[in-house]
Amino acid sequence: MPKIKDFPAVAANFTKDLIRGDFRSIRENFYGYLLYKLNKKLKDDSSLRYPIWRYIHARKYHQLMNQSSMISHSKIRFIIIYFSDGKITNLAGRRISNLLKNQSHKNYCLILAGADHNIEHLIRQLEQEYTEGRSDEHLVYLCFVEHKDLIARHALSSVAKAIQEDSDLELIYSDEDIINKYGLRVDPYFKPQYAPLLLLSHNYLSAFLCLKLTDQIIREIKSWEKINQASIYRLVLKLTRGRIRLTRIADVLYHRHWRNAIRQETESTQDLVQNEVLARGLKARVLSYNPAGFNVLKFFPEGNPRVSIIIPFKDKVSLLDICLKSIETRSTYDNYEIILIDNRSTEKETFEYLKNTKHRVIKADIEFNYSKLNNIGCQVAEGEYLLFLNNDTEIITSDWIESMLGLAQLPEVGAVGAKLLFPDNTIQHVGVVLGTRHINRCLGADEGGYKHYNNLVREYGCVTGACLMVSKNKYRQVGGFTECLAVEGNDVDFCFKLLRAGYYNVYNPHSVLYHYESASRKGKFRATVQQERLYMQQNWKEFMVNDQFYSPNFSPTRHNYCIRID
Questions:
Q1: What CATH number is given to the structural domain containing 261?
Q2: Is the same domain home to 278 and 312?
Q3: Residue 101 pLDDT more than 90?
């Protein structure tokens, strides 16, 4: 996409296209330049970004329409359950039926499931469709659409395309938006790929939800008294207790009516999720939250394992003292050790301070290498769990250790990160996306941010090494910190190694610390930093370009879930 400094080249290309009469190229280049200018001018949260995004992605719909002749005759059949807590009038039934006729994929059937429809009749229809589908060697998928909600004209085609690419898919979901009081589409929810802890906070898989119809799903539906969002959420949670093959379609295929959106955000699912937590044997409690449609989980440790807190430093004992005193005076968890890694301190004040400390001090007479310093600390650590901590931090929440430990003990969790604040009580860290971007940076400490993510336990590709906990076994499994990354990217590299090993890295909002971010050493190692950035790009492109916990519909260069329009 052209930039201002490239204007002479753009003008030259325009002249060449004009001489050739290539008006399509002229139109495309002008279109790209216009988007570039709009992206620069518009604020991150501008309401104009979504309409522009929709315009850009309208082309995808036309592409799907061109493929519809192939897809519509495929062996993929959809059963669309149009459900409501109340009655579904004949007018509403005809309306959804007429809307579905516009779908480019025609192999579907519609089942109405309102308060005036018998659940036994629904089950018989499902069983009949399932039996016929299997006899005809169809893949049969069950889709849910709530009364007054709509699906995009290319919704079934998009899902069919995903199934054609992977016929083993058991669950498919998409992005969604809201139809407001004026009939306008607003407030898109661009979702991450499957994130099990985020799913416990709210049913973000609910739209456009398609399930591969199986005997198990029919049995589950037989136990329902009625079909509503709560019963669907309960089913999704049950299906995702074990391994399940699922995918996200990063396109807005579902349009939720504003009344349904308000109800979903304000109706509590706390008891439902607490029951699921118990069924999974998790040691966690669901906390009350406003709005009630979101669940804040807090995890607690099993037993009383030892935690080794590893703090590298060089001089600056005033910062180190604040850090240590906050740990000693505010921590409610007591089974920990502190290992101080002294990296060539030179000040007399430092030596006097270390004489009087009760904590273990390890002399590291090496050139500054953050990875190696932490690995040295791990070699002498006695704890089952390792907590890497910067010396320029200060503890705020007293149960910071146990709330991280409860998550780090989960078998599927790798690294656990904390909420870090600047001294002015704005956010420094609540998760890292694309390996480089601290998301929601500089928002207020109590601001929930996009979909309340700042206050929810949820998965990210990376968490910062300024405060990071991991089990010693998992640390050893991935080989610890990569020592060729001395200055920058070592925590991201470590998180990516855990991710590649099959673990989730998790942000924990209950562990809150100040991070003073004192003058770093990066300026002294510019050449090293450049080499390390090249290393990251060469070794971790798969995660730095495609972050499974960050939608591709968000900008890769902005911080606050800004809709991408470039």
A1: 3.90.550.10
A2: no
A3: yes
Residue 203 token pair: 């049913």
Q: pLDDT tens across 153-183, in order?
A: 999 999 999 999 999 999 999 999 999 999 9
pLDDT in tens, 399-453: 999 999 999 999 999 999 999 999 999 999 999 999 988 999 999 999 999 999 9
**Domain containing 70: what range?**
56-291
Tokens of 374: 């932490």
Strand partners, 339: 310, 360
Chain center to CA of 140: 29
Average pLDDT over residues 298-315: 98
Q: What is d(CA 104, CA 86) in angstroms, rounded to the nearest whole number?
A: 30
Total domains, the chain: 2
Instruction: Give the tens place of pLDDT for each residue, 58-78.
Output: 866 666 566 555 555 578 999
Residue 267 shares a structural domain with residue 343:
no
Asked, for residue 550, whether it belongs to a domain, the answer is no
Question: Residue 189 and residue 514: Cα distance in Å, rounded?
Answer: 31
pLDDT per residue as tens digits for the range 501-522: 999 999 999 999 999 975 344 4
| CA 325 centroid distance within chain | 34
**Residue found by looking up tokens 């069950």 in the block:** 142
One DSSP character per residue, 367-385 reads S--HHHHHHHHHHH---SE
Mean pLDDT of 115-125: 85
Q: Which residues of 383-394 are buried (b: 16+ CB within 10 A; e: fewer)?
A: bbbbbbbbbbbb
Does residue 506 contact residue 459 with C-beta atoms inside 8 Å?
yes
Residues 246, 347, single domain; the answer is no
CA angle, residues 508, 511, 517, in degrees to nearest 5: 105
Judge whether 49 lies within some domain.
Answer: no
Do 337 and 277 lie in one domain? The reply is no
- Phi and psi torsions of 50, nearest 5°: -70, -45
